Every structure is written in structure tokens, then in C-alpha cells.
Model the fold of this input.
Amino acid sequence: MFEVRIHGRGGQGAVTAAELLSVAAFLEGRRAQAFPSFGSERTGAPVVAFCRISDREIRLREPVQRPNALIVQDATLFKSVDVLDGLAPDGYLVVNTTKSFAELHLDEIAARLPKGHVRAAPASDLARAHIGRPAPNTALLGAFAAISGVVSLEALLEAIRRAFPGEMGERNVLAASAAHAAMTASPAQEFACSNR
Amino acid sequence: MLEQIEGSKAMARTIALCRPQVVCAYPITPQTHIVEGVGDLVRTGALGNCEFINVESEFAALSVAIGASAAGSRAYTATASQGLLFMAEAVYNAAGLGLPIVMTLGNRAIGAPINIWNDHSDAMALRESGWIQLFAETNQEAADLHVIAFRLAEELSVPAMVCVDGFILTHAVEAVDIPEQAQVDAYLPPFEPVQSLDPDDPISIGAMVGPEAFTEVRWLQWRKQHAALERIEALSAEFAATFGRDSGGLLRRYRMEDAELAIVAMGSVNGTIKDAIDELRAEGVGVGLVTLVAFRPFPTQALREVLVGAAHVLVIDRSLDPGMGGPLASNVDLALRNLSPAPHLHSAIAGLGGRAVTKTAMRQLARDALADAWEGPRFVDLDEKVVARELHRSARERRCGPSAEHVLKATEREKIARVKAREAMR
Done:
């Protein structure tokens, strides 16, 4: 079972991101479960959403406590929430930021995780460019798909198109594809992405 | 068709396939997505011949459903928590009048202190109202139970509640096989009421009944619930034959073969418990699970039959009767009382007001029940430091203020301290 925890702020689409990821896995013929952290969420407040992916029936209903991957939609959350809690030693960490991990004081944590598992993605910038507003969730999913390979870009794009038919979906497809391409490009060619 | 879909949407789509003719509801978290979904299907015309009535309160929601049902319509509503309490008088009326209304309960705690999260307090509060109460383990079952509930309710002319864990199921996105309209139509015939108000053929429903007949009316109500025990099994078997999957029934057993300890639980927590049981079994611990689907009518006999060989029974309650303990444990205790030898009963209160029920906690609880038994209800994952401090604080002065607010402040202080300690370590 692969478990993902998505940290964001109300309005950034953390819950939608978990759902999209689960649909992408479903489209690939796997079992998936997505659910929010069930708070009285409001715009700007810390929000958590979860996604489990497995080849077998998923029966567990507890919140994800030992995530295999963390997707962080807002880097300021590290100051107020225990974002890294329980992250598996071989886990993945994708952060929406244009800063380096050193600037975020995350370089030590990054050093403990396998090479290539920790990436910064300028998801808000990509969203502004492609969607017209800084909604980072689909771009971050594109980046996550690229570094983890847990779902294919094709399945992810299909999930996005199903959730947002029409132009809004196509714009999000562009944002996700751009982030995916940025992560798969060699580090030297990446723009504003910090890497180890 | 198998779809990756939010539980509430899957339920709304399935409820629409049951062709309700009147739907009335008042929004309350975490049930709202369900009636919004049904409302959308009425608006788009996907659900035809249905009147969606926006009402001003939960009391009105069920009162309108009562009127609609008494006029011969298939009526549906949904609520949760305080909403159920606000309609409590009508809940009893629907049952007493024998009107087969189906209601989804998005299970949620009851205040005070106000809490929007999941537990079973609402269903337990009205367990004696005369409604059938069925608890869903997954979103597939949550959807399917509505189809069974309409059929069962209308056959017996008794209202039925489908209890679905709020947020944990209602807001979870997972794969659900949404039935085909033809399948539902084959299983659920059009509503043929045993009584209906008709201006051309006036009758009275809801007459005052005095001491000379009240007991007899109540006995007939009791008998109907008793008849439901058999019908629930039969209708679930028929459901399996029509839809090709098992849903509902009175109860289900999991790895009960040679189980020294049997866990009894209702609702979505059963999935987590199954994972815990697989691990315990692999470690050589003889644990099994009885998932109770029907809470009302209570399947006393069926439960007795599955629990007879177990030395220990551990009941997981998702609500608390403060003056008694776990309501489910009390009911299971009654079912066990004439067994000889009777299993040792252990009662645990877990997942109150949205507290996560973890696999780790369930494993530990099962091991403790076998090795280190306790008396009375055990509160799973209780922060003993917090309650001890509050007891100490409130004992110091008479005017100590509200305990909920102080407990909240104490846990918030601890959280901040944890975050600061972590920052300092980095």
C-alpha cells in the first residue's frame, strides 16, 4: 500500500488533489481511497487530505500516519504544522516553493531521504501561468507523478479532465504537464527548482 | 458501473435509483452532500416524478416526509447529530404511525461540547424510537443498504435509518459499483402503501389511543421489528442474487473460526479492525470479528449463535452513555446473558467526536482483553494526563469554570509545545 498525505491551506485544493490522485490510480485498475482530515476548514487554515493506493482492497480507515509521500502546497506550513510527521525513511517529499531547501531549513531532512525523492516544484508559478490563479494542486500532482512514478501522467491528466471538463480542465492539464516535464528534465535545465 | 466516487455522491445516485417521490431535507454537516446530490438529480431531471422540498428545519423535514408518506408517496430525508434530535418527536411519530420513510443518518457526535465529527451518538440517542437501524461498513454498503432499506421498510411499513459514518464514509472517495436502474427496479417494486390519505376515501391516521389499546398497538410495533429480523436476512440474500454482491444482513463474521476473542463493532471501523485481526492472527492470536449491520432490530439470537464458542467478547462502542457506558456493549451483554458458559465481556469506547480509531489501538485493545482484562468501559486513547490535570484543577476551587474550554486550552498548549520542541531540534 502506498500512502500519501497532502498538506495545504483551505482553498488550495488539497482535498481535490487527494481525490484526483485516487481517480488516477483507479483508472489504472488499482484500488484507491481519498479522504480529507475532516476539520471545520476555512480559507487559509491548514488542511490535510489523504490518499491510499493499493493493488488489494483498502479496509483501513485511520488517517495516514506513516506516509510514503508528502505533498506540501504551502511551504509556510512547516512553521505551524508537523508536516514531516511519520514520513517513511524512503519516502517522497514534494514542496510547492521557489526557494531552496536550505532556505526552508529542510536541507537536513532532504539529505536523509533517497536521492531524487525530495523536490521543490514552483507549482504556484506554473498555476499562475497556465490556470491564471495560484492553485498549485494539479501542478504538484504532475510533479509527484514524475518523481514517484506511482501514477502515470496519462492517468493523472485523464482524472483532471474528468473532474474539470472543458477549458478549466485543459488549463490544469497544462499546469500538471509542465510540472511533470520540469521534474523529469535534467536538474540543469530546471527553472527555479532546487535539487539535491 | 464501478466508479471512483465520493460516498455521498454514490449514495445520492443510488437513492435516486430507488425513485423517491418526495425528498425533503435541511442541510447539516456531514450529511449535506447527500441531499445536495439528490437535489441536483431532481433539478437535472435525472430523477423524475420527484418533488424536492426545501424546508426550514429538521423537524419540518421529517414532518413533511411523514405527510408525504401518509399520502402514499415514497419519502426520503437525511440528517445528522443535532438535526436528528431536533426532529426527535417526528422520528417517534413516523415509527408509531408505521410510515416506511427511509432516512440517511450521517453519523455525528452530539453536543455539548459542539462537535461536527463522527461517532454514533445520534443513532444511539434514538435507538428506541422504533426505526430499523442499519450500519454501513463501506461506501458500497452505504449505497446498497438504501435499496434494501426501501424494500424492507415498505414491506413491513416501518421506517428505516441507514447509518453511515460521517466524513469517514460520506466524504471518502473510493470505488463504488453504482447499480443499474433496471436492477433496482427488479428488486424494489413501486411503493404500495398499506394506508394512505385520500380526500375521496377519507380515513384517519394518528388517532389518540388510550390505555385500553396502547399496549396492543405497541405490541404490534414490537412484532414488526421481530419480523424484520427474518426479512433482513431474506432481503440481503435476494440482494446478492440480484446485484451479485453481499451487502447488509443482520451481521457478518470475519475469521471467527476457533476465535478465543470475538470483537463486535458497527460501521466503518470494521475495516480497520479486520486489518488489525489479520496481523494478530499472523502472530498467533485467535481473534475474530462480528460486524453488526442491524442494530435495530437487535439480532440477539444470531449474535448468540456466533458468539457461543468465544471465551472473550470485546465490544467497540462509538458512543457513550455517560451513566452506563457503551450502549452496544449493554445490548451485547443482554444477548450473552443466558449463554453457559457466558463469554467474558469487555467494553471499549473508541472514536468519540472524530478521534481516529487506529489499527495500533485496536491491536493493543484485543491483546489487553485476552491478557489484562478491565472492568467497565475503557476509553481508547484517553489522554490520562489531560483529564488528571483537569480533575486536579477543578478540585481546587468551586468556581473553576467550564471544563471543555480548559481541556481545549491544555491540549492546545501541548500542541504548541510539541511544535516548538521540534523546531528547536531542527
